[in-house]
Every structure is written in structure tokens, then in C-alpha cells.
Design goal:
The complex is a heterotrimer of chains A (493), B (320) and C (150). Chain A is an all-alpha fold. Chain A contains 22 helices and 2 strands. The chains are: A mainly alpha (493), B alpha/beta (320), C mainly alpha (150). Chains A and C meet through helix 8, helix 9, helix 10, helix 18 and helix 19 of A and helix 1, helix 2, helix 3, helix 4 and helix 5 of C.
């Protein structure tokens, strides 16, 4: 039986009233937890694990799958409208998305995110169906040397976000790298920059920094500027729907974002964040109007949103076919499989084929369900912006506090939120871009660990980075990316 | 829903069977899992809560997660906030012994009141399917010849995997101080590095890699148990001439400064929990190996493990 | 160039960033693990970050020295909101989520120019209570109920 027939049988299994109900519950719950910073799919599925004692495995996984996609979705809504990313995968979305929302283009921004997520999720799930074995080989081909080269490539994307004063962008990047060094060094167990606080040993949670820099920083800045306080954001200016021009500018970024996101999700150290940086970088470089970036370019929403959803599909490839969890959520899903006595891996497709194919089919359904549920709600979401600013920001801070506290159930994290919020305020006050700080925080530790792992394996021989073919290609690409702007000017000035 | 009725029936039966225990049942027990929800310590805490509540060893049990730094954040908070509290338990294990040392934690497990060792898991040494090392002897020979060239991947620095790598190197007669151990953040990353042949060998808990071992993507060279484990077709390290035995055990301890009576009460409650059928079912369902040992016997064991781990970590240069 | 055209806040900010670099350098000096195989140890990236911060701080300070200050910033609003955040750090566990979050809401709204105390307090209490019930009952998240009165 080929993959297509099995998939069709999976659809037959998934389209029952009961399973559709679980899928609906999953995507709805996912959307809500996605909105909250700090409470993500990993934590929610962990909290829901006890239900595996009462539910059929098919129903449980259909719900978990819907929840995973739904969380990505909900998070982009708050990123765009409130500049408050709920998950780390939609931090980049906040940059252009929020600019669009402020100029009255919130609805098209939400729409391009929704449709882009749907397109990417669907293509990603299709790739999962038919190309899982190939992608798995790629995932395993990446060792520490390849990861280090990949991180170097990803660092070049920061150049698209440095802003008008390069030294200010670099400062932001350096601050992010410094924040990333806090805690126990993975490779030697050595404690760094902890200053006696045990709560810092595991490092600073990315969510805390993102919420501090974006939501709290923004709130403080608005409070400091009278003219910003009195501005009433035009909730809906112009069309509520995407114009023909919006479609024309969105479809390529959706596809490119998908192409970047899917393989990254499948990489054991990939994640949903890095492909969003890369997507943003490419969209800015490829755009005929790079000057619109930073002021609300729709490509900067469409690409990263597609990338993070495709990455979610990518995460499932190594999980299902190798039993290899590549994200926190995947690790919890693995526990869920084991609760049912199922061991993901090659045998899963053989022993529990119907379950796997029903799960994959339900991902298609969940994706479609999200689109159907959310597109009509776009108009409603945008009305959030009509709430008077004092009340809107009051609400944002209440939910940020709730989310950040829940990450570790620790008021220490609220103290960190205060500090990073102050940092975010100062960065806005002195016109420093915020995004490079997040990039430094995510990429810094990955680059450091993989550099040192690679050198440990090679016993100190630096040549591994050029003798490994994948690593060499990635490094050459990085050099090209950096030099490109020098030799090749965009078609329009 | 059958399971729920089953558990209820079981609970009723247990209530009747343990009337004497119920007489001294703990009122409001708090079990602290020093990790995020979903992991081994969290699952242990939640399973204990379910079984003890159903079995009547405690009237109400709450599980609290205090995650961070190999459990040392939870340990520090526990010894501080719960001092003298006879109604609190902390789940912990071998990993915490190592973490206390590598993180230079100001409090250690010897500051707590040992209650019982509950379960454990054995570690496996694996190589990729296409590795030139066909047997454990091949691997130890390679370690002896040039230890630096044999990169061994596993979990966090100073964790159980790292400790076992050090013990094996020592037992093989190699220079353990020069061990080339490469820590990876999650189980997934280490697994990928081994399957991709980026490191020569890998070490992890058996359960984590069971699927890959059974499907033949990884070749298991040995397991760290004392004797052959039922249902696991892997020769022990000892059988193959590497005199090392290591269990990644999980245990519970009580707060420092509790009275002898409080300690007795807690030990009795955990003893009763261990004896229950519900606990046996948990062990079978989760494939946890029963390594039960309680009271003073466990206290002595904890001290000896502490010494052994300190010794290894000093040898491999993680602890000065 | 007269001293009045100098952008003192930015100059100070630059010096602050240099100070952060020095903190990193001090930390790097305190690390004494010698990597046997990697040759790049836990201190290397600390040195790297320290150097980068010092360099950037110097650039920020220099530009601050040479550019005129920006105008139009008020401090009252941000100060009230920061006080609210700081207060929540210390009140969340003893008083519980609902009162702590309601006060944060009130102060944030005030910091952003609202002067309707009663309305803001009411909305704050309702919002916090709804969030509390939704997340603690619905999802089983353990939010602090307050330990002061129990």
C-alpha cells in the first residue's frame, strides 16, 4: 500500500464526529495558550498527559496535534496586534506585523499570517507524508560542525535587522549573546554570570526576555511619550481583507518560508525560531521595496509565519520516523506515545500504521479548521486595538505576568521581566533595535556549544569546519550573504 | 473508563487492607518534583501522589514542580522553606548528586533526611549500527589505545551518562582524566549525533533508546546492571569484564530537621505505598525497575553513592 | 562643541555598556577549566562578549558625545508602571494572583494617562479573576491564591 492510499484511509479514520470534536478542542485550546506568553504547547500537553489514561490514543494525538498548530496560530495574533509574542516562533512576526497593525493594516497582516500558516502547514504535512525518509537522513547528517556552520549562516541574518545605526544593532546583538551565556555551561558544568542566584543556573528563559523587551518595553516607552499616548490606532484602515496587491506580495514568501521552516523543524537543534530569522532576512533582501521593512512590509509577516508553521510539521518527521524529539513539545509527545506503550520509530509505521496515518490526516484537518475558524474572526480580533491604550496595556501586562510566572512558577522570573522590560524601554528610548538581541540570545548558545562540541570531537582540529562538506557549503553561503549587499544592489533604490 | 473503575475498586480494597496505616495517614502531603512537568522526577512524584492518595497513606497529596539546574534549585528551596516540615517529600536521584557537585550547590542531599530509594533505570552503552566497534572489548581497547579519539556522547556534564563514561574508562584501564565526553542538551540531540556517527559511542538510560536498539539503528554493547535484566537482551558490563555497575536511581527524601517520629511516619507511609498493588501496576506500566530500599539502609547507600560520584567527577576533572 | 550640545544620557549609556563588558571580563577571569580537547573553553565566549560590549559601548559613548540630545521624554508614566511591576514581584505570592494583578492593571492604566481610578480597579479585578479561574481551573495551572490569610 502506498503512502497516498494509507493517507486516504487515515482521513477515513480521522473524519468521525468524535475525532473532529477532539481536533476542534485541540485547536481552540491551542489558540488560547498561544496567545499567552510563557504557556506554550509543551507545558499544556504535559499538563494534559493524565488524560491519556482515559482517551483512545487516536483521539489524544489528534487533540495534541491540533493544539500544537493552534498555539503557533494564536501566538501570531498577539504578535501582530499587541507586539507581544506568545511563542518564540512568532517573535519576528511582531516586527513587521505590529507595524502593519499600527498603520491600520492589522486585518491583512492577520490574514496573511493565517493563510500563510495554512499553506505552510498543509505543504509541511504533505512533505511529512511523502518525504519523511529523506528529511530524516538530512537531520542525522547534521553533527556539531554542521550546526556551528548553520549558526554562522543564521547570524548573517541579523544584518537585516541591525537598523540604521549599525553600532546600535551590534550592541543589541552583543547584549543578547551576553544574556545567553548566563547559567551552567552545558559542556563543562561551569557556572557563568550567575552572581549567586540559583534561579539563574538554567539560564534566562527566552520567553521572559521576549515579553520584557517587546511587551513591557513598549508599554513603558508609550507611557514616556505624550504624543504616542494620545495617538488612537486606526483599527481598520482600508480593506479588511487582503487586496490583490497583498496576495501578489504574499504567496512567494509563504512558499519560501515553508521551504526554510520544514527542514529546520526536522533538525535536532533547529527549532521554530531560526527559520523565521532566515525567512525575514531573505524577504528583505529579495524585496523590491526593502525600505518598507521596519515600517510594515507584508512579506515580513507572510514569510516568517509560514516558516514557523512548516517547522512544526518538520518536528514531527524525526519524532514519528525515528523516535527523535527535536523540540520540547516533541519530547512531551514522545512521553505521550510511551504512555500508550507505543514507541515512535520505524516500527511505529509498521505496528501502528492506522494510528500514524490518522494522526497525519488529522493534522490536515486541524489546519483547515484553524483557517476556517480564524479568518472570520480577523475582524473581531482587530477590534482589540479599539480598546483604550491604558486598559489595553494594563491587560497585556496582567497576562504577561501570568504567563511569565507560569513558566517556572517563580517570582524571580517576574523580577527578570522587570529588568528586561527596563532594557526594552531604554533600547527604544535610545533607538536601539530589539530584534538582534533576541537573535543573539537564541543563536549565541547554540553556536558556542556546537563549536566546542565539534572541536572536542576533532580534538582541537579547526579544519573540521571545511572538511565536512555540508559545513563548508554553509560557511560559503554565509560569506556570500555578507558580501552580497556590497556587490549587488537591489533593483530599485 | 474501565481503568477508572479498576483504580477505584483497587483503592477501596487497599483502604480496607491498610486500616492500620490509615490511622497514621499523613494529612496534607506535598511532593516536590524538582523538574518541569513530564520528566522522570515529575512522573515519579505524580505516580506517588496517585498511589498514596488512593491507598490512604496520605489524605491529600499535592505535587509541586520547582525546576532548575539538575534539581538543585528545588533542593535548595526544599531545605530552606520546608525545614522541619514532616509533611513534605522531595523526589531526587543520582543526577542530583552529580548536579550538586558540578553546580557547587551550597546544599547537598546529605542535608536532607533520607526516606527511600524507589526505582531506577540502567544505562546502556551504544554505538552506531555501522561502527567498527563490534563488542564492548573493541570499545575498551580503543579507549585504552587513544582515549581522546573515542568521543562519547550523552547527557549533561556531570550527569549519570558522564559518570558511567568515567567509570568505564577507569575500569578499562584507560586514563579517565583524558576522557573525551561530549554532552548534548536533550536526548534527541545525543541520539542524532550517535546515529549520524558524529561521535564514536553514546551512553543513555535504556528506556530512552530502547526503540532504536530494537530496530537495529543502534548497537548496544552493554548495560550497567549488576545481573542480566529480565526482558532486556543485552549483556551486562560486568559479564564482559568491565567491573562497573550503575543504576540511575530515583528516591525521595524528607526535609532536614524533622523529628524521628516524623521520619518513621514518612518511611512507614512510603513502605506501605511500595507494598501496594497499585504501585506494582505503576512499575509495570512505566517499565520502572523496582530498587526499593528505605530508612537507614538507604541513608547509608546515599552516602556511599555520594562518595563514589565525587570520586569519579574528580578523576574526570569536572570537580576540583 | 559646547557641553550643552552633548547627549549626556547616551554618553552615560555607552559607559554603562562598557561596564557590562568589564563585568563579563571579570567573570571570564574567574573561570579555570582547562579544556583538554576543544581548546575553546567556557571562558572564550565570555571574552568575546566582553570585547564586543566594550567596543559597542565605546561607539555609543562616542556618538553620544557628538550628537545633540533627543527631547520629549516623560518619566512619570514609566516610573508608575515600573513600580507596579516591581510591586507584583513581591505581592504575587503573599497576596495571591487576583489582587496583585489588579493593582498592576490599575497602575499601568494610570501610567498611561488614565485617571478613572474606580473604573480601572473594577476592570482590573474582573480581568484578573476571570484569568485566574480560566487558567487555574480550566488548565490546572497552579497560580498563587495567596498565603497571607491562610
Amino acid at each position: 500500500m502506498n503512502a497516498l492510499e494509507q493517507l486516504l484511509q487515515g482521513f477515513a479514520g480521522a473524519i468521525t464526529l468524535e475525532n473532529l470534536g477532539w481536533s476542534l478542542l485541540g485547536v481552540t485550546l491551542g489558540t488560547f495558550i498561544g496567545i499567552l506568553p510563557g504557556i506554550g504547547p509543551a507545558l499544556t500537553i504535559a499538563l494534559l498527559l493524565p488524560i491519556t489514561g482515559y482517551l483512545e490514543p487516536t483521539s489524544a494525538f489528534i487533540m495534541f496535534g491540533g493544539l500544537y498548530y493552534g498555539a503557533m496560530y494564536g501566538s501570531s495574533t498577539t504578535s501582530i496586534l499587541l507586539n507581544t509574542p506568545g511563542e518564540s516562533g512568532s517573535i519576528i512576526t511582531a516586527i513587521e506585523g505590529n507595524m502593519m497593525a499600527r498603520s491600520g493594516r492589522g486585518a491583512p497582516a492577520l490574514a496573511t499570517a493565517a493563510i500563510g500558516s495554512f499553506v505552510a502547514g498543509t505543504i509541511g504535512t504533505l512533505l511529512l507524508t511523502f518525504f519523511a525518509p529523506v528529511v530524516v537522513k538530512l537531520a542525522i547528517a547534521f553533527g556539531p560542525a554542521e550546526y556551528f556552520a548553520l549558526m554562522i549562516l543564521a547570524f548573517t541574518t541579523a544584518s537585516a535587522m541591525l537598523g540604521s545605526h549599525v553600532y546600535k544593532g551590534l550592541t543589541s546583538l552583543a547584549l543578547g549573546i551576553a544574556l545567553g551565556l548566563i547559567g551552567i555551561d552545558e559542556l563543562t558544568g561551569q557556572v557563568r554570570l550567575v552572581f549567586g542566584y540559583a534561579q539563574l543556573l538554567d539560564g534566562i528563559d527566552l520567553v521572559v526576555v521576549a515579553v520584557g523587551l517587546f511587551a513591557v518595553g513598549e508599554c513603558l516607552y508609550v507611557a514616556s511619550r505624550k504624543e504616542l499616548r494620545e495617538v488612537t490606532v486606526e483599527a481598520v484602515g482600508g480593506s479588511l481583507w487582503m487586496t490583490r496587491e497583498d496576495w501578489r506580495r504574499s504567496w512567494k514568501p509563504w512558499l519560501r518560508g515553508t521551504a526554510l521552516g520544514f527542514p529546520f523543524g526536522a533538525l535536532p537543534a533547529g527549532g521554530t525560531e531560526i527559520p523565521t530569522f532566515l525567512s525575514y532576512f531573505f524577504e528583505k533582501k529579495l524585496s523590491r521595496r526593502p525600505e518598507e521593512f521596519g515600517k510594515g512590509a507584508i512579506e515580513g509577516v507572510a514569510g516568517p509565519e509560514a516558516a514557523n508553521n512548516a517547522a512544526v510539521a518538520g518536528v514531527l518527521v524525526p519524532l514519528l520516523s525515528l523516535g527523535l524529539p527535536t523540540s520540547a513539545t516533541a519530547a512531551i509527545l514522545l512521553v505521550a506515545f510511551q504512555q500508550y506503550g507505543l514507541q515512535p520509530g520505524p516500527q511505529l509505521f509498521v505496528n501502528s500504521g492506522p494510528l500514524v496515518w490518522t494522526l497525519i490526516a488529522s493534522l490536515f484537518i486541524g489546519n483547515a479548521m484553524l483557517l476556517v475558524l480564524n479568518l472570520p474572526l480577523v475582524g473581531l480580533w482587530v477590534k482589540l486595538l479599539r480598546i483604550p491604550q491604558p486598559l489595553l496595556y494594563g491587560g497585556i501586562l496582567v497576562f504577561s505576568t501570568l504567563g511569565v510566572y507560569s513558566v517556572n512558577r517563580s517570582t524571580f522570573d517576574l523580577g527578570l521581566l522587570f529588568i528586561t522590560g527596563l532594557m526594552g524601554y531604554l533600547m527604544r528610548r535610545f533607538d536601539f533595535p530589539v530584534a538582534p538581541c533576541i537573535i543573539g540570545l537564541i543563536l549565541g548558545p547554540l553556536a558556542e556549544q556546537n563549536l566546542r562540541r565539534a572541536l572536542s570531537i576533532s580534538q582541537g582540529d579547526w579544519s573540521v569546519f571545511i572538511t565536512h562538506p555540508i559545513s563548508l557549503v554553509l560557511l560559503i553561503l554565509s560569506v556570500i550573504m555578507l558580501l552580497l549587499p556590497v556587490f549587488w544592489k537591489p533593483r530599485t533604490a | 473508563m474501565n481503568k477508572r473503575t479498576f483504580v477505584k475498586a483497587m483503592a477501596a480494597a487497599l483502604m480496607a487492607g491498610f486500616m492500620s496505616v490509615e490511622a497514621l495517614a499523613l494529612d496534607n502531603l506535598t511532593i516536590i518534583a524538582p523538574a518541569k512537568p513530564g520528566g522522570g522526577w515529575d512522573q515519579t512524584a505524580r505516580a506517588m501522589a496517585d498511589v498514596m492518595q488512593a491507598g490512604g497513606q496520605a489524605k491529600a497529596v499535592t505535587v509541586e514542580n520547582v525546576a532548575g539546574a539538575g534539581g538543585t534549585v528545588g533542593l535548595a528551596q526544599f531545605t530552606d522553606k520546608n525545614k522541619g516540615d514532616g509533611n513534605a517529600l522531595l523526589v531526587n536521584g543520582l543526577v542530583m548528586v552529580g548536579a550538586v557537585l558540578t553546580n557547587k550547590s551550597p546544599v547537598s542531599l546529605t542535608d536532607t533526611t533520607p526516606i527511600a530509594r524507589l526505582t531506577g533505570e540502567y544505562e546502556v552503552v551504544v554505538v552506531p549500527a555501522n561502527s567498527p566497534h563490534k563488542t564492548l572489548a573493541d570499545l575498551t581497547a580503543a579507549l585504552k589505545a587513544d582515549i581522546g579519539s573515542v568521543a562519547i556522547g550523552g547527557g549533561s556534564a556531570g550527569g549519570t551518562d558522564h559518570i558511567l563514561a568515567g567509570l568505564i574508562a577507569q575500569a578499562a584501564g584507560a586514563d579517565a582524566a583524558k576522557l573525551n565526553y561530549v554532552p548534548f542538551s536533550g536526548g534527541g540531540e545525543a541520539l542524532a549525533a550517535i546515529m549520524g556517527g558524529h561521535v564514536a559511542a553514546g551512553i543513555s538510560g535504556y528506556g530512552e533508546w530502547e526503540g532504536q536498539i530494537k530496530s537495529g539503528e543502534l548497537r548496544a554493547l552493554g548495560i550497567s546492571a549488576g545481573a542480566k535484566v529480565e526482558g532486556i537482551d543485552i549483556a551486562t558490563l560486568k559479564e564482559q569484564g568491565v567491573d562497573v555497575e550503575l543504576a540511575n536511581w530515583r528516591s525521595v527524601v524528607a526535609a532536614p530537621g524533622i523529628t524521628d517520629d516524623q521520619k518513621k511516619e514518612l518511611v512507614a507511609a512510603v513502605d506501605a505505598m511500595h507494598a501496594s498493588d497499585a504501585w506494582k501496576k505503576v512499575l509495570a506500566d512505566k517499565k520502572w525497575i523496582d530498587l526499593y530500599m528505605s530508612g537507614d539502609e538507604f541513608g547509608a547507600y546515599l552516602a556511599s553513592e555520594n562518595d563514589r560520584v565525587t570520586g569519579v567527577l574528580k578523576t574526570i576533572g569536572l570537580v576540583q | 562643541m559646547t557641553s550643552s550640545s552633548r547627549n549626556w544620557p547616551e554618553l552615560l549609556l555607552g559607559l554603562g555598556i562598557i561596564a557590562l563588558g568589564l563585568v563579563m571580563a571579570r567573570e571570564a577571569m574567574g573561570i579555570n577549566v582547562s579544556p583538554i580537547y576543544a581548546k575553546v573553553g567556557p571562558a572564550a565566549f565570555l571574552w568575546f562578549a566582553a570585547g564586543l560590549l566594550a567596543l559597542c559601548g565605546a561607539l555609543v559613548a562616542w556618538h553620544g558625545h557628538a550628537s545633540p540630545p533627543a527631547a520629549g521624554h516623560e518619566l512619570y508614566g514609566p516610573a508608575v508602571i515600573m513600580a507596579g511591576l516591581l510591586l507584583s514581584v513581591f505581592t504575587l505570592e503573599p497576596f495571591g494572583f487576583i489582587p496583585a494583578a489588579a493593582v498592576l492593571f490599575l497602575l499601568t492604566a494610570h501610567g498611561l494617562g488614565s485617571r478613572s481610578w474606580m473604573r480601572d480597579l473594577l476592570i482590573g479585578v474582573v480581568l484578573s479573576a476571570v484569568a485566574y479561574v480560566l487558567f487555574s481551573k480550566g488548565l490546572g495551572l497552579r497560580l498563587p491564591a495567596g498565603t497571607l490569610f491562610t
